[in-house]
Design brief:
The protein is built from 13 helices and 22 strands. Strand 21 and strand 22 form a beta hairpin. The longest helix has 24 residues. It folds into 3 domains: about 210 residues, 3-Layer(bba) Sandwich (FAD/NAD(P)-binding domain); about 120 residues, FAD/NAD(P)-binding domain (3-Layer(bba) Sandwich); about 120 residues, Enolase-like, domain 1 (2-Layer Sandwich). The protein is of the alpha/beta class and about 475 residues long. Helices cover about 30% and strands about 25% of the residues. The structure holds flavin-adenine dinucleotide. The site of flavin-adenine dinucleotide has 35 residues, from helix 1, strand 2, helix 2, helix 3 and helix 8.
């Protein structure tokens, strides 16, 4: 077995690992990057980018089918060529992956090792059965993988995860999606719009991670009108005589049914890849899912020389978070024991459905957890059903709710489903990070006629409910603005 001694080892060559390795190398070149599978990142290979490519094709099909209300008639059927759709998804995806791999290949080849890393002790990792590395510091950046329930294993190759979708040569006839979360909804809606027969199942009432009951109700209505969305539903699956999947389902109200589909897409969530890392050989503090605790500003675990970043940290499984956390963890592993807090930005999450879903700053559930007294919070809201520009474009579906602190008018967060949510979310996230108040946000310019005027309506609604007289005196518990 090859033996190596070094300063820093980064485990996992995805977005967080690459960010960490880049940051480490600003402090020392004596570092190694270990990747168990292939370089190219989950985001570029099987995540953010190919999913957005599939969504782009779905949007094209959807628009082509919905021109008539504008008086524009596209004669004949809209034909979706599954081979062409998937060819573009794969080709463009490969182009994005190529850029990432180019970055990786710019690093010295002898500093990149392929193989599965496992901790043997606090200072040693073994890679497969070919190399042992003793290092002073480590960054764990091993990402996450889809959760697959044991009972689904019997479905064999009829059970798929997101990775499989993006290697399809063409589109299947039918797919059942387990999990109306971010990934399930994005893929489910786009496959539906591309002509695949789609059913989306959820065990609970939840959709797309929305915690605000008003926004959630609108999301359920909008998506439920477009494709079969079975919430609060128990499902049993089995292969039929033709090798397809038969699904029997029953919801909480007793409604039941059966369908047969080509594939079942597992999208009930992702689990951090920390179970095959040999963490049991370390005396490291972990949460109930086995994920090492890490300080959110330093990414340092309870073992001071071990840092963690990206989906593996289970803090916020998003691409920009993986990048930020990777940089923080890499900088600190590089300069250890001189570690510093890094920049963590205001939370922003976008689901690229149509209409989109967005969550900014504190979610509804977090706001009401933080402020035990509901009188201390003000909610401003707008429905997009009659919003001017949205109606012009026939995109008038959705609802936005903004949350503010009663006493100060501080903007706390927002949840929305609706048009241009990705852009409104950015305005709100910038305002949140700048710790702006609702009156300050209303002092900002708004053009006419734009979807953002809907945001202004919600802010005005919040403003009308604020008591900024200085006389507000309730026991509010903690106040995030302080
Ligand atoms: C379908 C889908 C769509 C998404 N869309 C978006 C989006 O639109 N916007 C957004 O912000 N986020 C999106 N995400 C989430 C985003 O892709 C992830 O948050 C991000 O890629 C995580 O990066 P990472 O570096 O933590 O993990 P990864 O990029 O997965 O890197 C982890 C690496 O570690 C390697 N590894 C694992 N174990 C070991 C080991 N023991 N030894 C060595 N190497 C190991 C793995 O092979 C992998 O290469 C999406 C995800 C999916 C699945």
């Amino acid at each position: 077995m090859k033996q190596i001694q070094t300063q820093v080892v980064v485990i996992g060559g995805g977005t967080a690992g690459m960010g960490a390795f880049r940051a480490v190398r600003n402090h020392t070149e004596d570092a190694y990057l270990i990747e168990s599978h292939v370089f190219g990142t989950t985001c570029a290979r099987v995540g953010c980018m190919p999913s957005k490519l599939l969504i782009a094709a779905a949007e094209a099909a959807h628009h082509a089918r919905h021109t008539a209300p504008f008086g524009v008639h596209v004669d004949g059927d809209v034909r979706v060529d599954g081979h062409e759709v998937m060819r573009r998804v794969r080709n463009e995806r490969d182009r994005f992956v190529g850029f990432v791999v180019e970055d990786v290949e710019a690093w010295p080849a002898e500093r990149r090792i392929i193989g599965q890393a496992r901790f043997i002790d606090e200072h040693t990792v073994q890679i497969d059965d070919h190399t042992q590395i003793r290092a002073e510091r480590f960054v764990i950046a091993t990402g996450s993988r889809p959760i697959v329930l044991p009972e689904w294993q019997a479905l064999g190759e009829r059970l798929i995860v997101n990775d499989d979708v993006f290697s399809w040569e063409t589109l299947p006839e039918s797919v059942a999606v387990f999990g109306p979360g971010v990934i399930g909804l994005e893929l489910g809606q786009s496959l539906h719009r591309l002509g695949v027969k789609v059913h989306v199942f959820g065990k609970t009432d939840g959709v797309a991670g929305i915690s605000d009951p008003v926004v959630l109700a609108e999301a359920k209505t909008v998506f439920g009108e477009e494709f079969p969305l079975h919430l609060n539903t128990e499902v049993s699956t089995a292969l039929d005589d033709n090798g397809r999947v038969r699904m029997d389902y029953r919801n909480r109200d007793g409604e039941s049914g059966s369908i047969t589909v080509d594939y079942v897409l597992a999208a009930i969530g992702r689990r951090p890849n920390v179970d095959n890392l040999g963490l049991e050989n370390l005396d490291i503090e972990r949460d109930e899912r086995g994920v090492p605790h890490a300080h959110p500003l330093t990414m340092q675990t309870s073992i001071p020389h071990i840092f963690i970043a990206g989906d593996a940290s289970n803090q916020l499984p998003l691409l920009h978070e993986a990048s930020d956390q990777g940089k923080i963890a890499g900088d600190n592993a590089g300069t250890y024991p001189d570690i510093r807090p890094g920049l963590r930005r205001s939370t922003i999450g976008v689901v690229f459905t149509d209409p989109q879903v967005a969550i900014v700053g504190m979610r509804y559930a977090q706001v009401y957890q933080a402020f035990k007294n509901p009188e201390c919070v003000v909610v401003g809201e707008v429905s997009f059903r009659n919003q001017g520009r949205s109606r012009v474009m026939l995109k008038n579906k959705g609802h936005l709710r903004v949350y503010a602190q009663q006493e100060t008018g501080l903007f706390l967060g927002a949840e929305m489903v609706g048009p241009s949510a990705e852009h409104i979310a950015h305005l709100l996230a910038w305002a949140h990070q700048q710790k702006m108040t609702v009156p300050q946000m209303l002092d900002m310019p708004f053009y006419h006629p734009v979807v953002e005027e809907g945001l202004r309506t919600a802010l005005r609604d919040a403003m009308s409910k604020l008591d900024l007289s200085g006389n507000f005196s309730r026991e509010c518990g903690c106040c995030p603005g302080e």
